[in-house]
Amino acid sequence: MENYIKVKKEVKKAIEEIRRRNPGANFGEAFQYLLGVREALENDELDRALELARKAQLAAKPTTDYLLSRARKLDNEGGKAFESGRFSDAIEKWRIALEEYESALELAGRRRGRERLWRGLGAQ
Question: What pTM was computed for the model?
Fold first, then answer.
């Protein structure tokens, strides 16, 4: 019973973060994780449900590092698409990566983490 209470608390935190509409949040991803929580609970997989609830929180209230990681991944995917001649796909990946970088910058400013952001981007 105690594990169910933990899951409930973590889901509640995720929902609170979704309602806050944090910069850089990926609400679709957060909702997908919450649907996964429901499925895990139906299968009595409490550890998985807890993990998914925490992932939902991160998607709804991303850290600067999380946003930078997503942006770098999209940037790399864009480069690979470009090399493969899929130019439209490359441009779309880079467009989304740019949005992620901008969200990271906004979030860093709000959290006073600009120095860390610039170090993360490789600036001197």
Answer: 0.68
